[in-house]
Amino acid sequence: MNAADIIRIKDLLPTAMGSDELREQVAADILRRSVFSARMESARYLALVRETCAQFADGEINQAKAMEELMGELERMGHSPRDGGGLSNPASLARLKLVVNTQRQMAASCARLANQTEGVLHQTPAWELVRVSGRRMPRADWAARWAAAGASCGFEGALQDRFLALKDSPIWQALGDGTGGWRDTLGNPFPPFAFGSGMGWVGVPRADCVAHGLINEDDEVGRPEGGSLSPVEREIAEAAERLGFTAEDFA
Prior knowledge:
Layout: H1 3-8, E1 11-12, H2 19-25, H3 28-32, E2 34-35, H4 43-57, H5 63-76, H6 93-114, H7 118-123, E3 126-131, H8 142-152, E4 164-166, H9 171-177, E5 199-204, H10 206-211, H11 231-243
Helix pairs in contact: 4-5, 4-6, 5-6, 8-9
């Protein structure tokens, strides 16, 4: 199952809520398996977001075409990029870019998590958070975010002086929750850990993890969520069962 498949199996969540209300009133696992946009009640538009973002993730269309498709529907709904309002305007170029990029990043991370077999976990037991995409004004507070997330879980399975942690470390969920007071996070234990972020994961080889003292030579790392199916994987598995996917789709 690739990133496009994961986007296409998401449910639609029309809502009149704003971002803060969604964060406070809707469970993170529901948001994770849904296509939604703050204060967007049109299921038709969200269905277009889902399919357009799937095509973008699959490389069928580029970012510009994805934004053009969404802009056309928004203009038919009476929205315009000339209305102002910044990110609160669904037709603003900044918000459209944020929507398509975030959906693609999240789906890519979910697809990667679905591929965390025992063999993969043995070979690369940890992730390192690194910059994978440049930004005109990159956030300068990642060290503070890491410190706050780590402090909340005692740096379990994580280094203090480097953004490196075992794949089953609770620091990833804490980072996604914005532990320490950050409000631009998405509540997910996987990238992007903040809206518009250019930070992502690279796998860390076993030898490096041993050298840093994260594991011993013979240790094995559990799946996220302490060895049980993580929220992301549960959602994928439930949707796969509902839509008739087989085990081969996850190979």
